[in-house]
Structures are given as structure tokens and as C-alpha cells.
Write a structure and sequence with these properties.
This protein is of the alpha/beta class. It contains 26 helices and 21 strands. It has a 7-stranded parallel beta sheet with strand order 11-12-10-13-14-9-15, sandwiched between helices. Strands 16-21-20-17-19-18 form a 6-stranded parallel beta sheet, with helices on both faces. A 5-stranded mixed barrel has the order 2-3-4-6-5. Helix 18 links the parallel strand 18 and strand 19. Helix 7 packs across helix 8. The longest helix is centred in the middle third of the chain and has 27 residues. It is globular, with a radius of gyration of 31 Å. The N terminus is likely disordered. Bound molecules: adenosine-5'-diphosphate (ADP) and magnesium ion (MG).
């Protein structure tokens, strides 16, 4: 099937924190501002590209009103139209006599107008009878103006009509032909026609004309491909490939996502992206950091004070981190570890290394709850080493917050734990040397950079519990080194996982009663009904009510609309064993750590992504008791839902699950592109073009190795490529050296 390019919203959103996208310039009321020369990054865009970065309004036939509509459907600039690939094609190439028409097919025919039969009264259709040598047919129109129809279809003349033929009682008819033209235009009509994503008020024809106008502005680009690639892949030039994809010229519009033209444009986009990442990475590597002295007594004391020995994986990750910190370059490392793999202690020990060297460290969590939990985990460890901690979140009271800010500014507190409140304006660190970001996928890359800006040459450790398949981490984190915690702390028992139809709810509640009577504790995750806190909350409240009837006094509820104090109270009661059941919306998805909890029930599990389910399941099986996870799926969801959950029963390996998730849901979803502000592509499709991504990655690496300043033979072309795909921010990194 022909697949549309990824939707526009996920891409160059005006608020995209992705640093390599120059956001399209917004303009009101169709008044165009110069959106070209210089580019938003203050760099000079190559002259060759000026015509492509003009507002669509400069195109023939596009006035302010249409420009607005086009902007909504495709984008504001000419180049946006080029990237607005048709999401489907209509095949009008079949030219057939009326007698051969079959029901429901698109046909193009040359017919003679016989007679008009105006509607007998309002609400009835206007009919026009037409013939060819083979048979007769009726053209049917509703609410059409008779004078218009008479002009378009003069009796006695021939016309070309194209549209969907229908058979009614053995008679051929066509309701509102898509195209009416003179017979000599047959060559232009009888072909594959691109179908574009539109918006209310915008017709297919206007869009097609605008795209044509955009295509006419295409220059011949210099060649930025590596030698031999185009030949091997049978690729034409980018310009020709775009024309073909938009149905210009003699070749048919390719329908396959893997057609050469489609792969060609995808490759260019991926190459621009990977090259930009490679440039950033190169700069990061060149940047002089401050090598930290080796970890000393403090680290030793801290490790001794821990209630457990480190796992092999934790020790390895720490060594890799230590190596980075001892080097004269900034660290930019991603620590990937499945839920429960013990990332927190690695973060803590990393922070100590910086602190021991005289710097401050900050640990940033995505939510209030998680920040507080980190504090609770780390506090006793830190107390044992005499390290004080400042908690910085939105909910910390004013006085404490001010005191903490002051202590961070004068350097008297060396470890800060918090949410993004850590990086508000008023927080100035005396000497920040290390930033650790937990659950990276919840933060945009931009936030990550803002954070780095709080200190000179800060080292950065990013932690994620979402195992990201290698192929994807390359785009998402192409600029980072990666450490993996692939070993869980000892003594964990695998979580017994079962999938049950929601019809079995009463049984599940019955079993829960028994378990609670035996002193067990359970999470109960409620369905994500809609994309709204409110409806989630109602569902959760209802479920909590049902469970309270079965288990009076034992059930607590947390949801996104509660304030922190309330949430903390409930989670605290659950952690302390005063409550046995914690009913929750997915606020517990990441991080909550109650090792005594042994049961996880997830309702409407089929609504969650596999990786998310795996995360949730990771909340149990943290202690030494055996644990279980019950995945309830809606009975009407049936076999496919059950089938999809199968992988969770079969494996506890987050990476395997992530691969499966990727296969089922596609890359954008897995990366959480929208939330995270990660780059999405307009031409490349990561589900189908993974091999191209690999190639682009290699190519970019090679380019930087051979020509680190982009001065060589291919470099002018490559710069054009970076500008064309708006990855030009990376060029700055070349110039600032
Ligand atoms: P995550 O990687 O999901 O953030 P945590 O850091 O929250 O995992 O660790 C999960 C649990 O495992 C915590 O209770 C933590 O104290 C414990 N833990 C971490 N490392 C070890 C270890 N080496 N041995 C035993 N328990 C550990
Ligand atoms: Mg964690």
C-alpha cells in the first residue's frame, strides 16, 4: 500500500524543541515576512534555495486565502509543498468504453452528450444522458446549477469524463464525474493522479496546482550522494524523483514506499539528519571539558554504605561513565536500562564523582512524584556520606525553594534533585558540572540542551527505561554514547504474566481478596480512556469504588488531577502497607518503587503499547517474593488483542519487547516523537527505510571523518542538503569551531 508521509503535526511544530529544525516562520493574515535569506539561524542560505523558501503565496494562483489553507494542509513555504507527497493515487489510466464499465471502478471515457434531464423537483438529481459506440450512460448531479451543466456539457459534443462508474439495474451511471475535459486532453487525464492531504475549503485541484507551481521552482541540485550510490540504487536526481512522486512527466507515480524515487528522497532527508547529528557530535567531542580526577574516597565510602553490592552491569556502566568523566571532553552518554535494572544508584555514584571533584550535580526527573522518589531513595545513601541534597520542584514551598536556590548558588549544597523546575531562570548554580536526566523520553532534546546551558561544559548523563532498538537510537540519540544495564539485580523472580478477558473481572477481584488476606499488595492500573485527565480520572474513581466494596479500607487512588501532597499521601500509605491496593492511572508508569508490591493488574491492556505495559509490569517483581501481572483485555477486542499481548507472557526482555513494539506500532510511536520533540521525517519512513537510515548514518560518519570541516569536494553540495532539510543549525557548529 502507498503510505503517506508522516503527518505534519509531528514534525516541524512551531514549538519543536528539536534544535536542528528551523521552525517555519509564522505569519498572520497572509502577510508575508521574508522567510528566506538569511535563514532563521542567521546563516546564509544558498541562493539556489531561495525560491523554495518563499511563502506559498508567491506561487501563481495562490492568494492570501488559499495560502492560509495550504499552510494548514502542507506548510507555509514552497518547500513544504514539495515534501507534501500524495498519500494515495487514483488510477485514471483505464480508458474504456461504457459497455465495459464495472461497478465501483474508476474509469475514463470519451462520451457524446445526448440530452439533459433537469431535476423534476428539488431534491431529485439532474441527469445527463451520454453515449459512445458501445452503450449509454447517465451522468448524475445533485444540487448542480442547470446553466453551469449546460455550459459544461453542450448536447451533441464529445467530452472526456473520469470518475467512478456504478451499475444500477443494469444501467451504467456516474455520479459527479471527478474530471470533465475536452477529448484532446485525454493524455493528461488518463494517468495516475496524485491524491493530497487537504483541509476544509481546499480543493484537490488547487492543491495540485500549487504543488505543480512548487515543482517548477525546483533547481538542479548539486550532487551530495556518495560515489556509486545512485547507480547501485537506480536513483534519479532529487529533482526528478520529486517530480515523479508528484506525478509530473511521463513516468507513473510510484505506489510503493520502496520505489526508487521514494527511497531517493528519503535518503536525502536521512542523510541531512545524520550529518547534522554527526556535526553536533563532532563538536561535542572537540569541546574541551575539564577532566575530573579519578573517583576517590567518597565513592568508596558511598559504595560501602549501599545496602547491596553493585551488579556487573552497574559496575560496567560506571566504568564507562568514569572513563568519559576522566577525559578532556564533555560526556554525553545515554544509560539505557530496563525497569528495575538499577539506574538510580548509577546516577547517584556518578553524581558523587563530580561532587568529589568540587562540582555540583543535578538529577532531573520528569515528574514531581519521581523527583521525590529519587530523593527518598538517595537521601539515606547520601546521609551516610554527609552529602546534602536540595529538592527543587514546582511544589516545594516558597521559602524552602528560595533557600535551596541560594544554597545552590553559593555552592553550599552540591546535589540537586528536581523536575524541570531546576532549570527555571532563578536557579543559578554556583558550579554545575554534571546533569543527569532521568526518563529521557519525556523530555525534549531542546530541554536537555537548555539544561546543559546552566553550567560551563557540563557533562551529561541521560537515563531511559525505554529500551530503544538500535536502529532507532541512531536517529533519536545519534549524538550520544550508550551504556546498557543488561542485568537485573540478583534475587528477582520473573513476573508471572497472564492475559485475561475483561469478562473475568469478578474472578480477578476474588483472587485479589485472597492475596490481600495473605498480606500482598497490588497495583491496579485503569484504562486510558481518552487523551484527557478528566475521563481517566472518572474511570479510575469508578474502579476504585468497585474495589473498595470488595476490600473496604484497603484501596487508595492516585490520578493526574490530584495535587502532589494528596498523591504522596496515598502512595506513602501504599508503600508503608497501610493500603493494599493502589488504583492508578498511568502516573505510576515510570519510576514508582514499592518492592513489597507483588501484583499488577492492568485494565484494557490492549490500549497500551507493549513497551508501556512492560514498564508497568516492571513495578512489581522488585522484591524477593514472586509476583504476577494480569493483563485484562476487552472481550470485544478479541484474538488480535490477545495475540499482541503474547510477547509479554513470553519474555521479560525489554529490548525484545521494544523490537516487537516497533514492528507493530512503528517508529514514531515507539519514540514518542510528539511528546519528546524528537525529529520526525517528512519523506523518510522509519518503518520501511531502516536500511537507508543505516546507510545515511555510515555515510555521515565517513564524511565527518574524511572532511571534518566540510571543505572538500562534496562539501558545497552537502551544505545545500543541510539547508534544504533545515538542519542548517548544525552548520553553525562548523563555524564556531
Ligand atoms: P530503575 O532502573 O528502574 O530506575 P531503580 O534504580 O529504581 O531501577 O532500582 C530498582 C530497585 O533495585 C531499587 O529498589 C534499588 O534499590 C534496587 N537495586 C538497585 N541496584 C541493586 C543491586 N545491585 N542489588 C540489589 N538491588 C538493587
Ligand atoms: Mg528509575
Amino acid at each position: 500500500m502507498y503510505r503517506p508521509a508522516t503527518t505534519r503535526e509531528t514534525q516541524f511544530g512551531a514549538h519543536s524543541p528539536y534544535p536542528f529544525h528551523s521552525n517555519p516562520v509564522k505569519h498572520d493574515g497572509g502577510i508575508s515576512i521574508s522567510v528566506f535569506e538569511p535563514s532563521p539561524h542567521g546563516l546564509m542560505r544558498p541562493r539556489l534555495l531561495y525560491p523554495l523558501f518563499e511563502p506559498v503565496e508567491r506561487l501563481k494562483g495562490v492568494g492570501p486565502r488559499l495560502a492560509k489553507l495550504i499552510a494548514k494542509a502542507a506548510g507555509e513555504r514552497v518547500v513544504d509543498l514539495l515534501w507534501h507527497l500524495p498519500f494515495s493515487v487514483i488510477d485514471r489510466s483505464k480508458v474504456a468504453p461504457i459497455g465495459d464499465a464495472t461497478d465501483g471502478n474508476i474509469v475514463t471515457m470519451v462520451v457524446r452528450i445526448e440530452r439533459h434531464k433537469p431535476a423534476a423537483r428539488r431534491g431529485l438529481p439532474y441527469r445527463i444522458e451520454v453515449t459512445d459506440a458501445s452503450a449509454a450512460m447517465t451522468l448524475v448531479f445533485f444540487n448542480a446549477r442547470p446553466d453551469y451543466l449546460m455550459r459544461e456539457f453542450p448536447p451533441g459534443e464529445e467530452r472526456l469524463v473520469s470518475g467512478k462508474a456504478e451499475l444500477r439495474h443494469g444501467q451504467v451511471q456516474m455520479v459527479h464525474p471527478d474530471i470533465v475535459a475536452k477529448p484532446d486532453e485525454l493524455h493528461e487525464v488518463a494517468r495516475l493522479e496524485p491524491v493530497y492531504g487537504l483541509t476544509a475549503g481546499l480543493t484537490a485541484k488547487v492543491m495540485r496546482n500549487a504543488v505543480q507551481g512548487a515543482l517548477e521552482r525546483l533547481p538542479e541540485f548539486p550532487d551530495w550522494l556518495p560515489d556509486g550510490l545512485a547507480g547501485r540504487e537506480q536513483w534519479s536526481s532529487l529533482t526528478d524523483a520529486l517530480k515523479q512522486l508528484h506525478g509530473i512527466g511521463d513516468a507513473d507515480i510510484p505506489r510503493s514506499i520502496n520505489a526508487p524515487a521514494r527511497r531517493r528522497v528519503a535518503y536525502d532527508e536521512l542523510l541531512a539528519d545524520q550529518l547534522a547529528l554527526a556535526l553536533v557530535r563532532q563538536r561535542q567531542r572537540r569541546q574541551r571539558g575539564r577532566p575530573l580526577p579519578p573517583a576517590g574516597a567518597l565513592r568508596q565510602t558511598a559504595i560501602k554504605a549501599l545496602p547491596f553490592p553493585l551488579t556487573g552491569a552497574q559496575t560496567r556502566a560506571l566504568q564507562e561513565i568514569d572513563h568519559d568523566l576522566g577525559e578532556g571532553q564533555r560526556m554525553l552518554r545515554l544509560l539505557q536500562g530496563d525497569v528495575g535494572s538499577g539506574k538510580t544508584v548509577v546516577a547517584y555514584l556518578t553524581a558523587l564523582r563530580a561532587i568529589e571533584a568540587g562540582y555540583q550535580a543535578a538529577i532531573m526527573a520528569p515528574t514531581e512524584l519521581l523527583a521525590r522518589q529519587h530523593l527518598e531513595t538517595i537521601q539515606p545513601w547520601a546521609d551516610a556520606c554527609g552529602i546534602s541534597i536540595a529538592l527543587m520542584t514546582g511544589k516545594v514551598d516558597r521559602a524552602t525553594s528560595n533557600a535551596n536556590a541560594a544554597a545552590l548558588a553559593d555552592g553550599s549544597i552540591s546535589l540537586a534533585i528536581g523536575t524541570h523546575a531546576l532549570f527555571q531562570e532563578k536557579v543559578a548554580f554556583g558550579n554545575l558540572g554534571l546533569v543527569i536526566v532521568d526518563e529521557q523520553h519525556r523530555f525534549g532534546v531542546g530541554q536537555r540542551l537548555a539544561l546543559g546551558a546552566k553550567g560551563e561544559q557540563v557533562d551529561m548523563l541521560v537515563m531511559t527505561a525505554t529500551p530503544i532498538p538500535r536502529t532507532l537510537s541512531m536517529t533519536a540519540f545519534g549524538d550520544m554514547d550508550v551504556s546498557i544495564l543488561d542485568e537485573k539485580p540478583p534475587g528477582r523472580q520473573p513476573v508471572v504474566t497472564r492475559a485475561l478477558s475483561s469478562d473475568r473481572l469478578p474472578d480477578v477481584i476474588e483472587r485479589l481478596k485472597q492475596a490481600v488476606a495473605n498480606g500482598e499488595r497490588a497495583y491496579w492500573v485503569c484504562p486510558l480512556v481518552e487523551d484527557s485527565d478528566k475521563s481517566d480520572m472518572i474511570a479510575a474513581e469508578q474502579r476504585a469504588e468497585t474495589l473498595r466494596q470488595a476490600l473496604p479500607g484497603q484501596v487508595g487512588l492516585v490520578h493526574g488531577r490530584m495535587d502532589t501532597a494528596e498523591k504522596d499521601q496515598v502512595v506513602g500509605d501504599f508503600a508503608a502497607g497501610r493500603l493494599s491496593i493502589l488504583v492508578a492511572t498511568t502516573v505510576i508508569e515510570v519510576g514508582i518503587n514499592v518492592p513489597e508490591a507483588t501484583i499488577m493488574v492492568i485494565e484494557d491492556a490492549n490500549r497500551f503499547g507493549l513497551a508501556q505495559l512492560h514498564q508497568l509490569r516492571g513495578r512489581v517483581g522488585r522484591g524477593d517474593k514472586s509476583s504476577s501481572c494480569v493483563l485484562l483485555y476487552q472481550s470485544k477486542a478479541g484474538a488480535t488483542a490477545r495475540d499482541r499481548l503474547r510477547i509479554l507472557r513470553e519474555t521479560d526482555d525489554g529490548f525484545k519487547i521494544a523490537e516487537e513494539d516497533l514492528r507493530i506500532r512503528g517508529a514514531g510511536e515507539v519514540l514518542g516523537t510528539r511528546q519528546a520533540g524528537l525529529p520526525a521525517f517528512r519523506l523518510a519512513d522509519l518503518d520501511n527505510h531502516q536500511d537507508l537510515l543505516q546507510m545515511a548514518h555510515q555515510d555521515a560518519r565517513l564524511i565527518i571523518e574524511q572532511d571534518p570541516k566540510l571543505e572538500g569536494k562534496r562539501s558545497d553540495a552537502l551544505r545545500v542538503l543541510l539547508y534544504l532539510f533545515e538542519r542548517d543549525a548544525a552548520i553553525r557548529y562548523l563555524q564556531s569551531g
